[in-house]
Amino acid sequence: MLGAFVRAFSTPDLRNKLLFTLFILTLFRIGAVVPAPGVDSAGIQQCLQLATEEDTSGVYGLLNLFSGGALFQLAIFALGIMPYITASIILNLLTVVIPRLEALKKEGQSGQAKITQYTRYLTIALALLQSSSMVAMARTGQLFQDACHPSEYLTFLGTPTEWLSTVTIVAVMTGGTAIIMWFGELITERGVGNGMSLLIFTQIIAVFPAELGRIWNEEGVWMFSIIVAAGLVLITGVVFVEQAQRRIPVQYAKRMAGRRTFSGTSTYIPLKVNQAGVIPVIFASSLLFLPQMVIGLMGQDPDSRVVQILSTYFDPTGTHPVYMATFFLLIVGFAFFYVAITFNPTDVADNMKKYGGFIPGIRPGRPTAEYLDYVLTRLTTPGSLYLGVIALLPMLALGASGASANFPFGGTSILIMVGVGLDTVKQIESHLQQRNYEGFLR
Question: Per the record's keyword annotation, is Ubl conjugation included, yes or no (predicted)?
Fold first, then answer.
């Protein structure tokens, strides 16, 4: 494998792609630690230490993970890539609902470029909303759950230009999201791998050293070893399932196009066990943030019956059985929903029939669509259960061990790391194979 690395860097164009990708990722991490104007980084660190003792991993724990720890530091890249992810998910859902978007999707590259432009606009709007909400929470002290006074980390409070400084922070964070989008597109065009996915991957692994060091200091060597071993076993299982797929054979009959004759060919339709990826987990996590947002908006009034119910059954640590059961059911439901809107068996069957393709033993047209829908349902059932179990296992293990819910070996982070890592390695391997090398992994 080390030899493959040497061969990759000895190829000029591949070396330039790798170095360019590393350069953009370095700039991205620098922006994640540079505080926004008017923010005292030393005060932020003190408040963060106090907040850690009170476990502020509730509403914004996943967002802080996806920002590489930049969220609680109020950095210029504090929002991370989450606004873009949310915008992409919303556009994918609206494509099924709005006929205009569905027509654009079928137009090919030009239509996809238009949808990408809409995604950028929606990302900026969401970034503006999220940055305004985050700055408002920081000014009221709710960002760290009143662990320290806002004046300890916001230097502009009480000054005549307080409103101008607030607007500046919001503008800087929104602009940071636009720069992150640009970084992702640059990596996709001139680097190696999918840019947005690599940025998420970088943000998640950025918190690993600090979290592993904290577990070593707080839990001891034995608990540290057990958790790391369990994490490696979990990663191995995720790699195995993510690579699993059902290959449906497809035979194309001999046909003529003009004066040319094309002989029959054999291929297959790859249907993954986890066809939905990590999207259902993100959907479910986002919905389960709503109860905590309601509690925050209601001022955490202890006398309110609604606050008492939400605080009891939807505790952000995720240890209550009602919370875990709801989380599991949402993941399973969203997995079926997302697969249904992203893979249309009728369209696939029609395209196969149009080009003379058929599944051996299945008649073209409607019987083929019904067969594909049957196979996809049988694959999605274990795939959705797998996602739910992977998402719940860290909650159960960490709840039993007493570790913090911010531990990075969560279901969402592992799924993203494994998926992005495998895709990136495959792309590098394809570059090497084009030059008659043995590949990235022997």
Answer: no
pLDDT digits (tens, 9 = 90+) for 92-129: 778 878 888 888 887 878 888 888 899 999 999 999 98
Residues ≥6 apart with Cβ < 8 Å to 11? 431, 432, 435
Domain 244-407: give its CATH code.
Answer: 1.10.3370.10
Read off the pLDDT of each residue in 263-281 and give the average, rounded to a whole number. Answer: 82
What ranges do the domains of the chain cover?
1-207+414-442, 244-407
342: confidence class by pLDDT, cuts 50, 70, 90: confident
Where does 289-410 have alpha helices with state H?
290-297, 305-313, 321-342, 345-354, 366-401
Pair 83, 127: CB distance under 8 Å: yes
Q: Cα 261 vs. chain centroid, distance in angstroms?
A: 46
At 304, give phi and psi (nearest 5°). Answer: -80, 130
Return d(Cα 210, Cα 40) in angstroms, integer. 21
360: phi > 0 → left, psi -120 to 50 → alpha, else beta; which?
A: beta
User: 193, 16 in Cβ contact below 8 A?
Assistant: no
Would the CATH topology of 1-207+414-442 be identical to that of 244-407?
Answer: yes
Distance of CA 330 to the CA centre of its chain: 17
**Fold of the CATH domain 1-207+414-442:** Preprotein translocase SecY subunit (1.10.3370)
C-alpha 243/C-alpha 386 separation (Å) is 13
Return the residue matching tokens 């990826």.
277
The answer to whether residues 415 and 281 touch, using CB atoms and an 8 Å cutoff, is yes
